[in-house]
Amino acid sequence: MMMKKLLAVLLCLSPVLALAHPGHDTNGVMAGLMHPVGGWDHLLAMVAVGLWAATFSGKARWLIPTTFIGVMAAGFVLGINGIHIPMTEQSIAASVLILGLAAAWVKKMPTAAAMILVGVFALFHGLAHGAEMGAHGALGYALGFVLATAALHAAGFGLGCVSVKHAWLRRVSGSLIGLIGFGMLMGA
To answer: Cβ distance 147 to 93 under 8 Å?
Structure first.
């Protein structure tokens, strides 16, 4: 019963949580560090990437998160230069849904396909970061959000490694992220 109430509250709050971009500080490294941890959409997507990467073996474990970071940085450059892709916010919400469910339930997927999927979502995350600011102070801000993104990927990866012996933990974590993403997508 308690879990149902928690899920109901999270779903009710999700439209507010998805709108994390406008109106925050975009000046310097600290602002960049704080943005991904202050916006639920970014935080959950980054953790999901790390959680999902932990389900792979070999070099895929680091290729998936580094692809996200690299493409996100490229999207940031596009965003500060005025490039806009329609439905950016909806795509970010969809990233939370799909990456959470992938972390929870996808058993086998080629590394290249996973890299393409996270890369597409990373582009939208980067565009959103870049669109919210001009080129002034962009380097410090970008450095901050890249470092924060890497840390959140690492946190998700750590959770994924713990869940190797406890698959239910990964399934519950990824499913909860996906459920919140669904709520965000409905509210976006």
So the answer is: no
Question: Could you write out the DSSP letters of every residue in 124-184?
Answer: HHHHHHHHTS-STTHHHHHHHHHHHHHHHHHHHHHHHHHTTS-HHHHHHHHHHHHHHHHHH
pLDDT one digit per residue (tens) for the chain, 188 residues: 444 443 443 444 444 344 444 445 557 888 889 988 888 999 999 999 999 999 999 999 999 999 999 999 999 999 999 999 999 999 999 999 999 999 999 988 999 999 999 999 999 999 998 987 766 678 899 999 999 999 999 999 999 999 988 999 999 999 999 999 999 999 97
Q: Are 11 and 185 in contact (CB under 8 A)?
A: no
CB 57 within 8 A of CB 109: no
Return the number of other C-beta atoms located less than 10 Å from residue 61's C-beta.
17
Q: How far apart are CA 25 and CA 72, in angstroms?
A: 19
Neighbours of 134 (CB within 10 A): 12
